[in-house]
Fold this sequence. Notes:
The complex is a heterodimer of chains A (144) and B (206). Chain A has 144 residues and is an alpha+beta fold. Chain A has one domain: Immunoglobulin-like, CATH 2.60.40. Chain A contains two helices and six strands, in the order H-H-E-E-E-E-E-E. Chain A has helices at residues 3-22, 52-57; strands at residues 59-67, 73-80, 87-96, 111-115, 120-126, 134-141. Chain A has a three-stranded antiparallel beta sheet. In chain A, strands 4-3-6 form a three-stranded antiparallel beta sheet, with no helix packed on it. In chain B, the strands form two sheets. In chain B, strands 3-2-4-5-6 form a five-stranded mixed beta sheet. In chain B, strands 1-7 form a two-stranded antiparallel sheet. The model of chain B has no long low-confidence stretch (mean pLDDT 87). With 206 residues, chain B is α/β, with parallel strands linked by helices. Chain B has a single domain (43-200), classed as Rossmann fold (3-Layer(aba) Sandwich). The N and C termini of chain B lie far apart (60 Å). Helix content of chain B is 34%, strand content 31%. Chains A and B meet through strand 3 and strand 5 of A and helix 2, helix 3 and strand 7 of B.
Amino acid sequence: MNSPLFVLTLGLVATAILFPGCSTPKNVNSVELAVPVAQRATVADKSIITDSSLNQKARIIGVNQSTGAGGLLKVQVEVLNTTSSVQSFSYRWEWFDETGTIIETSMTTAVTRQIEGKESIFITGIAPKTTAKDFRLKLIEKLR
Amino acid sequence: MTPFMKTTLPTFVGVSALALVLAGCAGPEVKHVDSDSSRTVLGVDKINMQDWNMAADDMIKKLLDEVINQDKLQSADGPGKPSVMAISRVVNSTSEQFDNDMLLKRIRIALLQTGKVVVDITAGLGGPEDPLAEEAKRANAFAGGKKLRRPDYTLSGKILEDRSRAGNIREANYFFQLSLASTDGLAIWEAEKRITKQGKKSSVGF
C-alpha cells in the first residue's frame, strides 16, 4: 500500500470522526405566543453602525422604554446574534438630561454578554436620576 | 578612507540610527486604561476590577428598578423625604481578602444620586464610619432634646465563591448577594449577581 496515501486517508477519516464530537450547540430555537399579551412601547431609534462585523454579532432589533412610579426611565433593547456561533460583546449606557447634558453616574461599567447563535437577548438599562430623559447605548466587540 | 570603511561605516551608522529610533518608539510599558472598560486585567484567581464593577452595577440596576422606581421606600421623616439606610454586615465567604467598599461604595454613590436615599455613616457594625459625624449627631440630638434618628433600612449581604477544574480549564464562580431590610427585620428586597470566569491564566478581557 502506498504509505503517504494511507496516512492521508487515515487522517481524513480521523478528522471526520473527531469534528462532530467536538462540535457544540450553535443556534437557539425558541417559542412564544403568536399574539403576545404584553405590548411594548417601542420608540424610534437611530443606530450609528461603524463596525459591520459587530452588527452581525449583536444587531439591535427593537427598543422600548417606560417610566416607573419612581420617575426613572427604563429602556429595554433587544439584540439579535445573526450569526450561527456564540458571540461576545460589551455594552455601556449613557444618560442625558433634557438639555442633552450627560449625567455623570457610577453606573458606567462596560458589561460583557455572551449570545448564542441566532439568539436574541434583552439588555435593560435604568436611568440613574429622574432628570434623565434621553439615553445612548454603546456596543463594542469583545476585546481579545 | 579605505574601501572597507566606505562600505562598512554607512551600514554601521544606519543600523545604529535605526536601533535608536526603534528604542525611542518602544514607549512605556505602563499605560492608563479605562477602569470601567473590559480592557482591565481579568483572571480566574481573584475578583478583578471588572467583576466588582459588573456586580455593583447589576445590584444598582436592580435596586433602582425594583425598589426606587417602584416607589417602595418610606422615610420616618415623612413622604417625599429621602430614606435613611445603614450598611450592615457583608460577609466575605471567599478565599480572598478585600474591602467590602469595592462593592458597596458604587452602590451608595448611585443611591445617593437618586435623591431618594441617604446613607447614615454614623451607624455601622464595629463603630461609626465617621466618628466625628457620630459625635456631632449625638451632640445635636442632646442639645435639641431629640431622639437619635434611626435608619429606615439596613443593607447586608454575602460574597461567596465556588471553584472547579476540568482538564486545564479552571472556573471560578462568584456570588454577590445583598438584602435590604426594613426596621421590622423584613427583607423588602434581595438580589444575587453571579459571575463565572473560565480560563487558563490571567488575561485581558474575555
